[in-house]
């Protein structure tokens, strides 16, 4: 990165500036820009867009949408507590928008998918988690950290213990999968769950921010994925996990999945991440969030840019990135639905 900047003519061209935006990966607690330097050489594409050119369209403009007020401004705040890190375990209350979806199974109630709180009545998830599963859906849990304990506590740097309120279990009123969702192609894999009112006053519960304003078209090179590792076949961890993953270009992602000769088509409404010897890319839940930290509403906040959709059947295998629904392209549908 330093060598590239030293050799590039000054002042930097707009094309170079735009390309360098791909290497920003969030903000510090002091709102300083974080840069993630790649292991390979910096490459500046001639066209400027690293995604697919197939029918590329801009995300919908929702700046003046009548329901934009239903998205809280107090969202996605980064927890600045000084925690003792433990591997890839997330800190207590670090991602308070995480939600768990419970299902009826032959072995009793079980969490099989994740989601995120977007306001006090709505959970964002993947369509494949709810489409055709209405009878099996039991409810949604929010404010959870360690599934094995009723009250979650954590030891602080000064040796004191911090505990959170118990999680909230809320019932489901309605479910909505995107009308264009295709369970074979796994396209338009986004859904919404309307629940009984969530108490947002607890410290372990807060909505995530969704792409609005400048974050709709924001460029990012690294993303954070969080979850307990829920899939349709089981669970990886009792404690909420987090992992930072590199973004993979759509062209590379398409090439990889085309090689599998499966009936899948990667489009500009999806994004890909991981797959480069990232064994922990399995940490996310089906329907859970892919998020990026940025400066919004006078603070550093997490914006949910993606929803965990699908991946190669051997989770975390090198060369096979995970595929995520790109939330920005569905914000008009989200706002239309939550306004009903």
UniProtKB/TrEMBL annotation:
CDD domains assigned: Tryp_SPc (cd00190)
Peptidase S1 domain span: 84-339
UniProt key word Amino-acid biosynthesis: no
Entry GO MF terms: metal ion binding; serine-type endopeptidase activity
GO biological process: protein maturation; proteolysis
SUPFAM superfamilies: Trypsin-like serine proteases (SSF50494)
Key words, A-Z: Calcium, Disulfide bond, Glycoprotein, Hydrolase, Metal-binding, Protease, Serine protease, Signal, Zymogen
The family this protein is said to belong to: Belongs to the peptidase S1 family. CLIP subfamily.
Official protein name in the record: Peptidase S1 domain-containing protein
Origin species: Acanthoscelides obtectus (Bean weevil)
Phylogenetic classification of the source organism: Eukaryota, Metazoa, Ecdysozoa, Arthropoda, Hexapoda
